[in-house]
User: Which sequence fits this backbone?
């Protein structure tokens, strides 16, 4: 079996190569195994192996002796609450997984950790996970429609003020966050599900999957350097990302109209014009050794930064795709010496809720 040879090699060279010399033994093993599984299993088997978002959430909550609280949304989407439901200040988390995979259990302890650290700072924050339909059950724009319904539910049913609501998402979830912002600027649904004039408190995209093809623009099909340079350093391979991206793009009913939403690196340069009117703060992060690094850099520099004065970008030295999650995947220290991104995320979220100058809608 291929992993029998790959894993010992990665362990042997880990002290010598930049991609892993700062990682613990557990992280080297965990990163290698994760890549092997995602590279090896066909999508159908991967979905079967991983389970469902509701099942993973419920099992984790029972293990942690936390309440299981699920809000049913219009259109089969769901909100899964971490810990007791709190609605004064809320984080809406859109999970990643290439639009084929459910929420994964290592994402849950990360956000529970953030929630508990916020409590230590005197901030009571509810965290709701957006459980959306995945391929092949549903394609774009279904997850976006469900996410819009989630925001409508939070603001109209749970009475969460938009100025107290922060969106966060990783990978495909980061893509979904970008889609939400796009839909607020370019209403896709009629009538708009999120009322015009809504201004959210913040939007954070961790390693956002914003290039479905590996290319850097609408005009060029040339693959970005990081998809080549980091193909053997990341926890996701270029082949996997491009394969899953083809699945997403093949489901578009009107590609010429839909591409800016699902593949924002190919959106017009002014696509996010007016961004500061719909969200108060934006953060984008990536990893030095992930395939999506160059795409994330371009996305921020060319699409986000020109239209928002409070947009920030952070690149984790030595980091891979969704790097902070993998400390929880292997049970490593979330605030270890190498992990600079986790405390930054914590501070960014906390600062958003501590700052009372945001507009209330």
Assistant:
């Amino acid at each position: 079996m291929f992993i029998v040879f790959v894993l010992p090699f990665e362990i042997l060279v880990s002290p010598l190569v930049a991609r892993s010399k700062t990682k613990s033994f557990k992280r080297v093993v965990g990163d290698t195994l994760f890549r092997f599984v995602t590279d090896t299993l066909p999508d159908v088997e991967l979905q079967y192996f991983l389970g469902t978002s509701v099942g993973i959430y419920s099992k984790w909550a029972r293990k942690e002796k936390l309440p299981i609280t699920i809000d049913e949304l219009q259109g089969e989407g769901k909100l899964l609450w971490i810990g007791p439901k709190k609605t004064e200040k809320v984080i809406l988390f859109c999970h990643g997984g290439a639009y084929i995979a459910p929420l994964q259990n290592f994402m849950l302890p990360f956000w529970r950790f953030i929630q508990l650290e916020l409590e230590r700072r005197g901030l009571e924050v509810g965290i709701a996970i957006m459980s959306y339909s995945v391929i092949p059950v549903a394609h774009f724009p279904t997850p976006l429609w469900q996410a819009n319904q989630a925001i409508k539910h939070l603001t109209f049913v749970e009475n969460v003020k938009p100025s107290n609501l922060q969106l966060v998402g990783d990978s495909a979830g980061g893509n979904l966050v970008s889609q939400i912002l796009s839909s607020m600027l370019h209403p896709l649904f009629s009538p708009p599900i999120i009322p015009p004039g809504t201004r959210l408190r913040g939007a954070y995209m961790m390693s956002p999957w914003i290039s479905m093809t590996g290319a850097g623009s609408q005009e060029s099909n040339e693959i970005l350097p990081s998809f080549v340079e980091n193909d053997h350093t990341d926890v996701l391979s270029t082949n996997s990302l491009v394969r899953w991206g083809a699945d997403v793009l093949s489901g578009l009913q009107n590609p010429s109209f839909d591409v800016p939403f699902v593949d924002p690196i190919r959106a017009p340069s002014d696509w996010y014009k007016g961004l500061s009117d719909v969200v108060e703060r934006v953060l984008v992060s990536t990893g030095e050794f992930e395939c999506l690094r160059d795409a994330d850099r371009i996305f921020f520099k060319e699409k986000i930064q020109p239209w928002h004065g409070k947009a920030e970008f952070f690149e984790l030295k030595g980091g891979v795709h969704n790097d902070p999650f993998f400390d929880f995947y292997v049970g490593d220290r979330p605030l270890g010496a190498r992990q600079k991104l986790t405390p930054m995320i914590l501070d960014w979220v906390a600062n958003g809720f501590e700052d009372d100058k945001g507009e209330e809608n």
Remarks:
- The chain has 14 helices and eight strands.
